[in-house]
Amino acid sequence: SSGLYIVATPIGNLRDITLRAIETLRDVAAVACEDTRVTGRLLQHLDIKQRMIRYDDHADERAREGLLALMADQPVALVSDAGTPLVSDPGYRLVRECRERGIPVTSIPGPSAAIVGITLSGLPSDKFLFAGFLPSKEKAREHALAELAVVPSTLVFYETAPRLTDALAAIAKVLPGREVAVARELTKMFEECRSGTPDELIDHYTANPPRGEIVLMVGPAAAEAASMEDAEKLLREQLRELKP
Ligand code: SAM
Questions:
Q1: For residues 57 and 184, which has the higher predicted lDDT (pLDDT)?
Q2: Residue to mutate, 9, 11, 79, 164, ligand 1, most ligand atoms under 8 Å from C-beta
Q3: What SUPFAM superfamilies does the record point to (predicted)?
Q4: Residue 220 has pLDDT above 80, yes or no
Q5: Which residues contact ligand 1 via a Cβ below 6 A?
Q6: Does the complex come out with an ipTM higher than 0.90?
């Protein structure tokens, strides 16, 4: 029936598509996607012929209105290049509009790199905070990390290979004493998850420049530093240090 179907797709291994995802992609009237070439390849692999409509949250209002009008009386799927839509990917504005207008929204769950990373990391997984991509500029990155210093949970970031060692250096500086884990190429042939101190990982990845996509995780502050008072003191000091 009509509405928006949020469909998760594989993050590397094409066999991670779910039965419900296949059925949905086959049955909808159109598939909204980030990149028609990437989604075209997935659909071809699944032997599905579908109308594809390019969508991103920054698309102009008219494009979004067109999609919403279609969803109001036909089923439309939203996929991203890989993984779960809306998780550091487009879709949030679309879902928000659907909810405001009473257009039904259904989620067809599947892989998301953050969840795969957390399950492999060996870091506490009872509570974690997904923080998306760190800023690429040094000061902004350190500021973002300082803001998270008081969070008593594992921190999960998406990262790119060229920026990994800079991000590790920022963690060593702003969140000293934390255990870190780097998960790479998840669900693919060269999947790896490596943990240690930021300095150990900087040494390793300087000697072996990483390739592929990365989930970077930071363990919670050690128990003795985890009291709220200590954490607040730490945050104040770090914010003061970062002031220009
Ligand atoms: N929506 C996606 C999801 O649910 O995982 C994430 C999209 S985001 C634009 C892309 C980032 O996800 C990459 O830079 C990387 O940090 C992470 N990622 C995606 N696939 C991955 C994989 N196979 N292994 C490790 N990280 C991955």
A1: 184
A2: 11
A3: Tetrapyrrole methylase (SSF53790)
A4: yes
A5: 11-12, 80, 82-84, 87-89, 112-114, 158-160, 183-188, 213-215
A6: yes
Q: What is the pLDDT of residues 161-175, one digit of tens each?
A: 999 999 999 999 999
Distance 110 CA to ligand 1 centre (A): 13
- At 128 the pLDDT is 98
What is the Å distance from ligand 1's center to 61 Cα?
A: 27
pLDDT digits (tens, 9 = 90+) for 134-166: 999 999 999 999 999 999 999 999 999 999 999
Axis-axis angle for helices 198-207, 164-174 (nearest 10): 160
Pull the structure tokens for residue 159: 């990262």
Asked if 149 and 238 touch (Cβ cutoff 8 Å), the reply is yes
Q: CA–CA separation, 201 vs 168, rounded Å?
A: 8
Q: Which residue type occupies 11?
A: I
Assess contact for 84 and 93: CB atoms under 8 A.
no
What pLDDT, on a 0 to 100 scale, did the predictor assign at position 234? Answer: 66
